[in-house]
Each structure stands twice: as C-alpha cells, then as structure tokens.
C-alpha cells in the first residue's frame, strides 16, 4: 500500500525517490520528459486505484483537474495548460504508453481477467467461424446448438470485458477507447507486464 500523503502537497524530492516502485513499471525508467515528476505525480493521483482522488472525485474530469492541480500544474501558465490538455486528451504517445503500462502494473488482477476473457473470446470466435461439416443431421444440429451457445457466451464475455476495461482505466472513457483500440492486449504482453505493487 502506498502513502499518498506526499502527493497531496508539493514533492520535495524526485518522484522515483519517493515512489521507487514506479521504476518497476515497464518503460518507466526510460520515460524522459522535462515535466516527468509532475506528470507522474498527476498520474498517481488520477489513476492509481487506491488514490484518495478516486473516492473524493467520482467525475473523471474533475479528478483529472484536481490531480493536475495537486501535481503543480498552474491554471495561469499557458505552457501548463497545453500540457494538461495533452495529458487529459491522451494525445502524447509516450505518456499514453507509460500510463497504459502503469495501469497494467497496478491493476494486475483486472488485467489478467481482461486477457483471459479476450483469449477465450478469440477461441470461441475461431470455433464459430469454422464451417459446419455436413454429415448426419443430428450431428449438424448439435454443432449448430453449440455455436449458438458459444455466441451467447461471447456476448457475456463482451459485457464482462466492458466492465473490466472500465475498472482498469478508472472510468476514463477516452482512455478506455484508446486502450482498447491499441491492440496491445495479448497473453504475451500480460506475461511481461503483470506485477504486484
């Protein structure tokens, strides 16, 4: 369990000193940005599942605004405003990659559920598109019944996946869209990304 107290004021040390576990996130040690500490400060407050901001601000937009404020982004600074827009819109690829890897890191159980369901969904899909072999009518009818049941299960998996993505991306609809369209969810990526905090 991490202590969020330092994040609720201005950090007096580099963020990796205060939160060394961040160095375990895939790609994090290579993340080089002039405002790295403020960006990561914002990310921890806005997206860590145990952040006090999650409970205090149920609106994702408001949570992002308050997290940016705590991280030191000033409303009066045009540069800070541009940077906030990039963070809020997820339009910076390097930040999006770090955020995605961070969310996998801190939500490893949810991530594992997503990958398991995605894999099962793909297996079912392969069975559904495999043509029925004509033969005994009873066998064809049984195969069609099985396919129908598979479609029902796929629908349930799809609904579960929506719930898991919502949880993984902390309800941020734009990030959900970005994360699910990036095609980065594979069993191989889960093996290299899943860690415990």
Describe the structure.
This protein is mainly alpha-helical. It folds into two domains: about 5-105, no CATH class; about 110-195. The chain contains ten helices and no strands. Helix 2 packs antiparallel against helix 4 and helix 7 runs antiparallel to helix 8 (about 135-170). The model is unreliable at about 185-195 (pLDDT under 50).
In short:
With 197 residues, the chain is mainly alpha-helical. It has ten helices and no strands. It has helices at residues 15-18, 36-47, 52-56, 60-70, 78-89, 93-106, 108-129, 137-168, 173-181, 187-193.
List the helices and strands and how they pair.
Blueprint: H1 15-18, H2 36-47, H3 52-56, H4 60-70, H5 78-89, H6 93-106, H7 108-129, H8 137-168, H9 173-181, H10 187-193
Helix pairs in contact: 2-4, 7-8
What proportion of the residues is helical, as a percent range?
Answer: 55-70%
The outline comes out as: elongated
Mean pLDDT: 82
Rg is 21 Å
**What series of H and E elements makes up the topology?**
HHHHHHHHHH
Protein traits:
mainly alpha, 197 residues, 65% helix, 2 domains, elongated
């Amino acid at each position: 369990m991490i202590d969020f107290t330092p994040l609720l004021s201005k950090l007096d040390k580099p963020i990796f000193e205060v939160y060394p576990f961040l160095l375990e996130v895939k790609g994090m040690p290579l993340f080089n940005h002039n405002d790295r500490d403020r960006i990561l400060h914002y990310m921890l407050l806005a997206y860590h599942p145990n952040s006090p901001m999650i409970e205090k601000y149920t609106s994702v937009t408001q949570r992002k605004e308050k997290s940016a404020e705590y991280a030191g982004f000033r409303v009066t600074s045009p540069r800070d405003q541009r940077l906030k827009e990039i963070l809020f819109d997820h339009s910076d690829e390097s930040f999006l990659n770090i955020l995605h890897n961070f969310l996998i890191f801190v939500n490893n159980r949810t991530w594992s559920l997503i990958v398991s369901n995605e894999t099962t969904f793909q297996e079912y899909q392969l069975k559904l598109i495999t043509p029925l072999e004509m033969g005994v009518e009873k066998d064809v009818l049984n195969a069609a019944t099985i396919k129908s049941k598979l479609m029902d299960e796929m629908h349930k998996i799809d609904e579960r996946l929506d719930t898991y993505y919502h949880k993984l991306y902390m309800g941020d609809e734009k990030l959900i869209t970005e994360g699910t369209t990036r095609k980065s969810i594979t069993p191989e990526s889960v093996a290299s990304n899943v860690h415990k905090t």
